[in-house]
Amino acid sequence: MLSTVSATYPLVEPMLDNPFQFFENGFTPWDCLDAFPSAPPSPKPFGSSSGSDESNRLGQNPDNSNSNSGSDEPNPPVPAIDERKRRRMVSNRESARRSRMRKQKHMDNLRNQVNLLRVENRELTNRLRIVLYHCHSVRTENDWLRSECSMLLKKLSETRQILMMRHLQQSTSAWPCNNIISATEQIPPSLITYS
């Protein structure tokens, strides 16, 4: 088994030295060994014994030999089919690896976007808290200013009333009608005429 694999893949011997070595595509050596059968498939005998050993070694089955008996093209040899399968398998592994890398990159991008959105959300929440705090303090200050304004208006009204009362008291003491009696008493009698 090792001789067939080492002939196909000369890198198998260095892998035996280090059992944890990886291929370039990320698969372990035993992943590649599992892809190939341990023994070559045994050729199926023809219905008649007239077939040559060469056709048995190439792995022709009776269905293919009967269906292509009229054509000039010989069936492709088994190693070419195995090579095609191996190439297809390697290609599938590569495309699967590329697909995994694309998905991983997409997931990383989505994780980065989620982290950025969380940071932005935290910043917006903090800004909202600051704005709400300022709004509350402005409302409190506004309520305090309104109460002080109403108190000052009340004091102003009381002060106006006091000033008006004093002005009225001063003006009533200066009126001449209050001094009529005293004024007649002060006028000399010669100036008073009786009719």
TrEMBL record:
Keywords, in A-Z order: DNA-binding, Nucleus, Transcription, Transcription regulation
Single biological process term from Gene Ontology: positive regulation of DNA-templated transcription
UniProt entry tagged with the keyword Kinase: no
UniProt domain BZIP: residue ranges: 82-128
One cellular-component annotation, GO: nucleus
Transcription found in the keyword field: yes
Pfam family, one: bZIP_1
Low complexity composition bias: residue spans: 61-73
Organism: Populus alba
Highest taxon above the source species: Eukaryota
Subcellular localization, as worded in the UniProt entry: Nucleus
Single GO term (MF): protein heterodimerization activity
Protein's UniProt name: Basic leucine zipper 43-like
UniProt-annotated stretches for the region Disordered: 34-108
